[in-house]
Specification:
CATH class: Alpha Beta
Structural class: alpha+beta
Distance between the termini: 17 Å
Helix content: 25-40%
Number of strands: 6
Strand order of the largest sheet: 2-1-6-5-4-3
Number of helices: 3
Shape: globular
Strand content: 25-35%
CATH topology: Nuclear Transport Factor 2, Chain: A
Order of helices and strands: HEEHHEEEE
CATH architecture: Roll
Length: about 170
C-alpha cells in the first residue's frame, strides 16, 4: 500500500465541496494553529448558535460536557493551546517538524453532505516526538457540523475529544 501524502487533499478535483471542507479543517486549521493565528480561521465559523461539546476522551456520552457554548470561548481555548504549542516549538521541545507531525497524525476522509449541511469526521492518531525522548500523543476524533453559509462551508459546531480506537 502506498504511503499517503498527508499534505495533499484526498478528494478529487471534481468534488469541490469536500475539497473545500478538507482545506478548511486540515490545511487552514493546522497552519493557523501552528502559527497561533486565529485571524486565519475566524471566517471559517458561524458564530450565531456555535456550540462545541467535549467528549473528554470518554466513550460514554454521560461524561461529555458543554465545553464551548460560544465561539468566543472556543477561540480563547484554541489560542491558549496554540500559544503553548508555539512556546514548545520555540523552545526546541520537538524532535522534528511538529507541523508535519500534526499533518501525519490527521485523517479526514469521511464527509457526509446533505444539501447545505455536512457531518465531517476528523481523526487524529500519531505522536509528536520531543527532544527529551518523550512524545505528545494525538489520539482522538472530532465530529464537525458544517453548513454552507454565504456560498462557502463553515463550522457550525462540533463534538470533539472523542475516543479514537485504532485497531
Amino acid at each position: 500500500m502506498a504511503e499517503r501524502d498527508a499534505f495533499k487533499n484526498p478528494f478529487p478535483a471534481g468534488d469541490a465541496d469536500r475539497r473545500a471542507i478538507w482545506d478548511m479543517l486540515v490545511t487552514r486549521d493546522i497552519d493557523a494553529f501552528v502559527a497561533a493565528d486565529w485571524s486565519a480561521v475566524q471566517g471559517d465559523f458561524i458564530e450565531a448558535g456555535f456550540t462545541g461539546i467535549s467528549g473528554n476522551h470518554q466513550g460514554d456520552p454521560q461524561g461529555y460536557t458543554l465545553a464551548f457554548p460560544t465561539l468566543a470561548g472556543y477561540r480563547d481555548r484554541w489560542l491558549s493551546q496554540a500559544h503553548a504549542f508555539g512556546a514548545d516549538m520555540a523552545a526546541g521541545a520537538f524532535a522534528g517538524d511538529a507541523r508535519a507531525g500534526i499533518y501525519q497524525a490527521t485523517r479526514l476522509e469521511e464527509i457526509e453532505i446533505d444539501g447545505d449541511a455536512a457531518l465531517v469526521r476528523k481523526k487524529f492518531d500519531g505522536r509528536l516526538a520531543k527532544t527529551d525522548g518523550s512524545f505528545d500523543r494525538m489520539n482522538w476524533q472530532t465530529l464537525y457540523i458544517c453548513r454552507r453559509d454565504g456560498g462557502r462551508w463553515k463550522i457550525a459546531g462540533f463534538v470533539g475529544y472523542l475516543p479514537h480506537i485504532v485497531e
